């Protein structure tokens, strides 16, 4: 089954070869938090002059005979939306009686292959597969659980839960609880409910800030329960107001207190929730920065974020990356990767903000 081939490619170690889409036109401003629809904020857009059969033929020719034309594959796939890629996949099967993803995997290798297979996977299935791989086997990849469950919208979380059951005949919440423990597990379960309160409760802003202060900085030890309840259940709009009130009350940013008062997986998850409440694109800019910082590259994270945000908010991520780290995302990718893998990632990035 195609899904398993995707799963194998995601877990393989690799090396890439690609060519990218044009830089998109300047978009409208959005505030970038979870509940915002990011229409037009992606670096990858649907092609206006789209013909699935024609594209299927281009890909077939790129893989036919001796050698593979990686550049053509890369340029085409990064200049089509995911929905269009699914139509190309269907056309390819109709025209050639073969599975496009299987053929791509047979022709490509390394990180480039992983990236191309990720691009060919519908977004919800990509999230579901990433979560499944993070949970199954020995050990848990907490980073993936944290990233996906803290950054996706309520509707996306509901779709992920349903797709997980359909794909694996398993319950995502049960799998998560079976693989995690303690306060970390409790907050993950709350996030999986996808039932944050709506709007801002004016009367609770000061009370929430006070509760968080009393649960952490003000006492010996930490009442993690209060952090989990408030940060896991309030709306992002409400939390922004609470963070401002907390700063006035405690003299610290919420993130500073979480760093001091908690540890391990819970700390990382609470920080991700707070950062996503403030700005999802800024959270991903930071995630990308740390995937390339220091010796070695966390290619799994780099690929996952570049693919999953390419049609959502990559333009905002690029702007936040420039603002936060005084360099462009484009130059960071250029300096940290190589070959076709680098070319493909730069196409997904879509432009240099140097």
Automatic annotation (TrEMBL):
<dbReference type="InterPro" id="IPR018252">
    <property type="entry name" value="Annexin_repeat_CS"/>
</dbReference>
<dbReference type="GO" id="GO:0005509">
    <property type="term" value="F:calcium ion binding"/>
</dbReference>
<keyword id="KW-0111">Calcium/phospholipid-binding</keyword>
<dbReference type="InterPro" id="IPR018502">
    <property type="entry name" value="Annexin_repeat"/>
</dbReference>
<protein>
    <recommendedName>
        <fullName>Annexin</fullName>
    </recommendedName>
</protein>
<dbReference type="GO" id="GO:0012506">
    <property type="term" value="C:vesicle membrane"/>
</dbReference>
<dbReference type="GO" id="GO:0005737">
    <property type="term" value="C:cytoplasm"/>
</dbReference>
<dbReference type="GO" id="GO:0005634">
    <property type="term" value="C:nucleus"/>
</dbReference>
<keyword id="KW-0677">Repeat</keyword>
<dbReference type="GO" id="GO:0005544">
    <property type="term" value="F:calcium-dependent phospholipid binding"/>
</dbReference>
<keyword id="KW-0041">Annexin</keyword>
<comment type="similarity">
    <text>Belongs to the annexin family.</text>
</comment>
<dbReference type="Pfam" id="PF00191">
    <property type="entry name" value="Annexin"/>
</dbReference>
<feature type="compositionally biased region" description="Polar residues">
    <location>
        <begin position="29"/>
        <end position="38"/>
    </location>
</feature>
<dbReference type="GO" id="GO:0005886">
    <property type="term" value="C:plasma membrane"/>
</dbReference>
<feature type="region of interest" description="Disordered">
    <location>
        <begin position="20"/>
        <end position="40"/>
    </location>
</feature>
<keyword id="KW-0106">Calcium</keyword>
<dbReference type="GO" id="GO:0001786">
    <property type="term" value="F:phosphatidylserine binding"/>
</dbReference>
């Amino acid at each position: 089954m195609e899904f398993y081939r995707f799963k194998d490619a995601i877990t393989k170690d690799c090396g890439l070869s690609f060519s990218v889409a044009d830089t998109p036109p300047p978009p409208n401003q959005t505030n970038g938090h979870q509940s915002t629809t990011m229409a037009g904020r992606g670096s990858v857009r649907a092609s206006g002059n789209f013909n699935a059969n024609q594209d299927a033929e281009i890909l077939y020719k790129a893989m036919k005979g001796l050698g593979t034309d990686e550049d053509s594959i890369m340029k085409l796939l990064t200049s089509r939306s995911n929905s269009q890629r699914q139509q190309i996949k269907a056309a390819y099967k109709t025209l050639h009686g073969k599975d496009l993803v299987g053929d791509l995997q047979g022709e490509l290798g390394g990180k480039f292959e992983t990236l191309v297979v990720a691009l060919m996977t519908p977004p919800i299935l990509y999230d579901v597969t990433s979560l499944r791989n993070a949970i199954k086997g020995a050990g848990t990849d907490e980073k993936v659980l944290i990233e996906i469950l803290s950054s996706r919208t309520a509707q996306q979380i509901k779709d992920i839960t349903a797709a997980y059951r359909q794909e694996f005949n398993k319950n995502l919440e049960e799998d998560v609880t079976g693989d995690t423990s303690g306060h970390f597990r409790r907050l993950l379960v709350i996030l999986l409910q996808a039932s944050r309160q709506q709007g801002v409760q004016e009367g609770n802003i000061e009370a929430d800030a006070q509760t968080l202060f009393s649960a952490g900085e003000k006492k010996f030890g930490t009442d993690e329960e209060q952090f989990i309840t408030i940060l896991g259940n309030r709306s992002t709009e409400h939390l922004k107001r609470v963070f401002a009130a907390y700063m006035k009350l405690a003299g610290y940013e919420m993130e500073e207190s979480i760093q001091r008062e908690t540890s391990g997986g819970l700390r990382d998850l609470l920080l991700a929730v707070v950062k996503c409440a403030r700005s999802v694109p800024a959270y991903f800019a930071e995630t990308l920065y740390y995937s390339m910082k220091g010796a070695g590259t966390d290619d799994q994270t780099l690929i996952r974020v570049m693919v999953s945000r390419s049609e959502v908010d990559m333009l905002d991520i690029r702007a936040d990356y420039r603002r936060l780290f005084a360099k462009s995302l484009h130059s960071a990718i250029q300096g940290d990767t190589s070959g076709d893998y680098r070319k493909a990632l730069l196409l997904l990035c879509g432009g240099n903000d140097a």
